[in-house]
Amino acid sequence: MHDTAIYIGRFQPVHNGHRVLLQRALASARQVIVVLGSAWQARSPKNPFTWQEREAMLRAVLPDADQARVQLLPVRDYYNQAVWVQAVHRAVAPFTAGGARIGLVGHFKDATSSYLSAFPDWELMPVQRQGRIDASAIRDAYLGATPASVRPALAALADEIPASTLAALECFAQTPPYLALQQEWRMLRDYRQAWAAAPWPPVFVTVAAVLRCQDQVLLIGRAHAPGKGLLALPGGFLGPRETLWQSCLRALREQTRCPLPEARLRAALQSVAVFDHPDRSQRGRSVTHTHCFDLEDAPLPVVMPAVPADGDARPLQWTPIAQLAGLEEAFFEDHFHMLDHFLSVTSPPPMLL
């Protein structure tokens, strides 16, 4: 018998496979800690539900007698395994006494399950895969439905979904975020299908710019899917006849009409970092080279949103760095974590093991 069993997952949404693993954890330890991954992410087809909504789904499948034995802890994605492992350790530490026997419950589904090997100080309690589907199949069927046809669309998967989860999905389908997620899902589905005939999976190279001035950073609002309406850094795809530096300058000019000459920007360049986590973009494997500029206490450059051919302008805003932490759930993909890398937005700052 373990003192604590830890179960890590995203639960997007909760299905019967999750419930079996949760039951295994409860049968193996006096207390169970469920780590809710991908917390504080903006809604997306991959992460449609907030951590609070997922907590409610998990609580709904717990017997009343076990409610007090389970702690649910949200942990953000850092797109850096060493930092993420440290964050998980930090989250569970207040609930585990020194010398406690800790077990880690999970099953090796595919390459995304490699995190189970990242906690050698916890005893791994492997469980065979439960059921024939995973949450991605549920999400695809769900987002391909309509608000009135959720139950029929999920009928083939009904034996894999707890009744409480199905009820939650039907309720959520009546809200505006569901319709927005469907638009995102269709766009991403068509985007991936367009590349399906390529002889190998494509790898996209992009650039982004962190432009800092007077302790503020320049952000754009995305005008189109994916991430329509979310905050992002200026940037875009690498041009076929451009260097990374040239693409970064072009993106700044096109999206913000930044008036600063190249020489001024080169003098303000502090560093360049590469963001290449395999799961950072739902469009496919994407590698972003992010340039960080610091204009220090110079006057704020006058910037204006670009107006593309369709007339749908991307709004711009200079945002105080002190306000970024409160905007985490409003950012596209991992752009918040790019800012965190350069500006140490999260508190306490991540510490490597």
From TrEMBL:
Keyword terms: Nucleotidyltransferase, Transferase
UniProt-listed InterPro entries: Cyt_trans-like (IPR004821), NUDIX_hydrolase-like_dom_sf (IPR015797), NUDIX_hydrolase_dom (IPR000086), Rossmann-like_a/b/a_fold (IPR014729)
UniProt domain Nudix hydrolase: residue ranges: 199-342
Identification of the protein by name: Cytidyltransferase-related domain
Ion transport in keyword set: no
Species, as recorded: Verminephrobacter eiseniae (strain EF01-2)
Database matches in PROSITE patterns: NUDIX
GO function term, MF aspect, one: nucleotidyltransferase activity
Gene3D superfamilies attached to this UniProt entry: HUPs (3.40.50.620), Nucleoside Triphosphate Pyrophosphohydrolase (3.90.79.10)
Residues that span the membrane, as ranges: none
Pfam family, one: CTP_transf_like
Coiled-coil stretches: none
